[in-house]
Amino acid sequence: MVPSVAALLVSHDGRRWLPTVIDGIRAQRAPLSTVVAVDTGSKDDSADLLQTAFGDVLRAPGSTSFPAAVELGLERLRDRGEAPEWIWILHDDANPDPGALAALLAAAAADPDVDILGPKLREWPSLKRLLELGITISGTGRRETGLERGEYDQGQHDEVRRVLAVNTAGMLVRRTVLEALGGFDPQLPIFGNDIDFGWRAAAAGHATSVVPDAVVFHAEAAHRGARRTSLTGRHTHYQERRAALYTLLANAPGRKLPWLVVRLAFGTLLRMLGFLVVRSVGEALDELAALLSLYTHPGQVRAARQARREQPRADLDRAGPLLSPWWVPYRHGLDFVGDLVAAATNQAQDVAERRRAAAAERAPASYAPRPSSDDEDTLGADTGILARFLTNPVALLLTLVVVAALVAARTAYGSIAGGDLSPVPAGAGDWWRLQVETWHPLGTGTAVPAPAYVLPMALLATLLGGSTSAAVSVVFVAAVPISLWGAWRFLRVVGRLVVFTGASRWVLLWGATTWSLVPVVCGAWGGGRLGLVVVSAILPWLAHAALGFADPAADRRWRAAWRVGLLLALAAAFAPVLWVLAAVLGLVVVAAAALVVRGAIRDRSVWGPPAAAIGLVPLLLSPWWIPAIQRSAAEGLLLDTGRLPTPTTDTIDLMSGRLDGLGAPVWLGLVLAVLALLALLPRATRIPVLVCWVVALVTSVLAAVLGALSFDLAAVTVDAGLGVLVVVLQGTLVVAAAIGAVGLGAEQVPWRRVVAGVLLVVAAAVPIGGFAWWLGSEPEISDGIDTDIPVYMVQSSEEGPEHGILVIRGTVEDGLTYTIRRGDGVTLGEDEIINHTLEDTDFSADVRALVSRPTTELVDALGASGIEYVVLPSPADGDVAAVLDATTGLVQASAEERTTRAWQVDRPLDAAALEGPASWLRILLLVVQGVGVVVVAVLCLPTTNPRRSAP
């Protein structure tokens, strides 16, 4: 007996496909009992085509979802009094092969236990490319077909098999099963209803099979964006992702739901990052919106789960074997990384070539610029000809500036420490150990991660033969020349952008020299503020890379994003507040671009590059940021690096570019601010100067906000780090003044020469005064850091971390404090870890008891904690010394000063006292950081393919 089959065709604006689909339905070799056509508000003549073909069409409004359309078709069958055994569901963009229905019915007759059957889907119009042979879903919500990308049909999958679900395009389902399961979920209006229905059917004990002999050609109009409706909207990816998340949360077993909620949230962040890396910002935002849509409305998921529990014979575990294997998402991740690395090796040439070509096109015929290289800049005339060099005053003065900087930095030759700069460790291996350790034997032991700047310092020290002192010395000696070079390059490009003829070399000399002296005159150099010195050297190069965001070519704007992101991550490793400022400036710039250029915000290549550059920083610095937040050390993200307490900054310091009154005389900074203000007068360059003042205003506002914050650390209360904002503000004022000088040179007014002469004298006083002060100053980094611990105890502590020294300072009347010295003392990098480690309250209680009412158990605890000596540095409190003298287990030890008292702990020292657990999260983050740095560095490089280098 031939089973009765009713075809249910759903259509919406399907005019381009319907004629072929109608012919395909009529050509079926297996007979159809009836055809029910449902049109959901088509604006074309789809409904008329269906009316002509089948005589009866249900016309529904455009807001009708696919589940509702199917239910309308079933109601029409009931109204007619028809009860077919099977329902064959078709889309208006799904053309069935003439033998499709016959093959489905034959498979159903061969296996009576099967209630749902689906065809092999091939791509329409290519006809040979496979789309689906049954579907399932992974634990991250990815729709899995088991097919390779672009796989062609060669009969390699032609076997009937059980699957979780089949596509609704061509699905053959028993009518009684469809009605018993309540049809398709109305919460899935267009996407994902096939997987959800198959999952619910499997949970209810119904079987689903795919029949490869049945072929349906599917155009996937909604998925590919060929057709948009009120249900899909403009964000198809959002609808698909929301459907996938809803399907997982609604159908997963209850015991897996908590883990699934966490996994999907974390997986969404990873997917967002992946979309950002491949420049798909819209999809990244859709991912987040889909997650928030469900997580902020949990009632929808609860109602869905309740409805599924009420279905007859429901058992969600039945679908488990049909779900995607657990390892599939990780395989997709590896595939993505492979694609990313492949793309990284095929980048185009440097953005500077495009900028010069554009400049040449705008140049008048009479203008013939000197050939130059944006990557190998010549600062004076041709240095290959000695005579021209000696007769070029700018080149001579520039050389003099470099020589003067090297002479003024004479203090930094050799090992330096003092001020805010801690001593360096013995070798580069100590920094590498600090970088990869997940538990540090410092104090009483801590899992606070090493600061982010340890990695670049370790790399530099390794390149210098493992000498840490040489690495720090190179940073302090080379900071001014590197900043000078970068500022010259940046100001030269800016000059060409604001005035076609560019800035004069005298303006470039003044601007570059003044900018390079910013870390010196603000007091960061002499005070040992390593982070601010490094940022000052990187900042002009970072600004130069950021100019690429204005390139007319989208791909070059994206390459600028990788360069900016890498440089910003390096700078933020030494001064985390810089990332906060960059994020705020990025928002301001994108908002301004949206206001000035209508529609710019809709172009992801406009706002995407700066967003990607800013988003790269947390990824590249994740081994520090994430564990720091995890270990309650998040305040480190808003503090300056270096020994505590850091210098405070008030309004006058911010305006004059000084750190807590340190550095050169205040009037030098105020003169620079006045010059930047006067730069607003020339009309030719007023707009770029205003841009500089906007940056200065944003920086000042952020400084005011952060200035209201303070953080209570274990040993001291400190203010938020404003040092990097001082540096940025001074650099911005230098750029504004230099641009103003360019504009003044372009002004054709009678008084221009007089004003220029006066301003030249005033402006020259800034770098000259800065150099004069630097040459005559006594920097704190030459003072070193005195230790009041006896030498033999220091030597003993270097034998291992268990030979610790408990140093107690102060008096009973004024209060006592303690520190624990291990190894060679607190070195650069370790000071950050100790500063941000929470107080060990148990050990503090033991120390309080030790100086008041000591017991033998407390002495035993000292040995178990790896404490070999107890020291009261000069002047020692007599009351505390008397208590320790009478303590059993503490043996008096000699001290180098009469007023310094010391005791040796007469107990076994526990070598394992400072061992702690390993953090696999940090190890994973270190791997991610290493891969990320390599990938981004490759993305920054220009291509070596000459065919890609052509303009």
UniProtKB/TrEMBL annotation:
Superkingdom of origin organism: Bacteria
One Pfam family of this chain: Glyco_tranf_2_3
Positions in coiled-coil regions: none
TM helices/strands, residue ranges: 257-278, 394-413, 458-485, 497-518, 530-549, 561-578, 606-626, 662-681, 688-709, 721-742, 754-775, 920-941
Record's keyword terms, sorted: Membrane, Transmembrane, Transmembrane helix
Name under which the protein is recorded: Glycosyltransferase family 2 protein
